[in-house]
Amino acid sequence: ERLKPYFKGKPVNPCIVNRTKPPQGFGRHFDNSKFDDPVATLCTNSGVNIIFIHKDGRHYHAMRSQRRSLIVMSGESRYEYQHAIPEGVDDAWKGKLIPRNMRISWTLRSMRDLSKYDDL
């Protein structure tokens, strides 16, 4: 229910569930353009640092995804910035070293109507 305003009536499909354990992370990437705006990720069980890297490679932002947090990427955050979770057993955040635990994330997307696109 809480996600409906973000998806503006579009059906959410698919939902991908990932389980990562320390020291697992994932490399920087853009989400596939076959998916429409937004891409929403619900982080459960444990928090982790996420890095957003501008496509020019010169700018980045780090954020802490807390347990039970929701990250919604659309527009600039989706198409101008790649995102990654560095590998590691702990995260440095605000002067503290935070041990990682198993993280479960639920990534929700809406598939574009691909019949409108020749290049996808």
Automatic annotation (TrEMBL):
SUPFAM superfamilies: Clavaminate synthase-like. Residues 11-112 form the Fe2OG dioxygenase domain. GO terms for biological process: DNA damage response; fatty acid metabolic process. InterPro entries: AlkB-like, AlkB-like_sf, ALKBH7-like, Oxoglu/Fe-dep_dioxygenase_dom. It comes from the Eukaryota. Gene3D superfamilies: Alpha-ketoglutarate-dependent dioxygenase AlkB-like. Pfam families: 2OG-FeII_Oxy_2. PROSITE patterns: FE2OG_OXY. GO terms for cellular component: mitochondrial matrix. This is Fe2OG dioxygenase domain-containing protein. The lineage of its organism: Eukaryota, Discoba, Euglenozoa, Euglenida, Spirocuta.
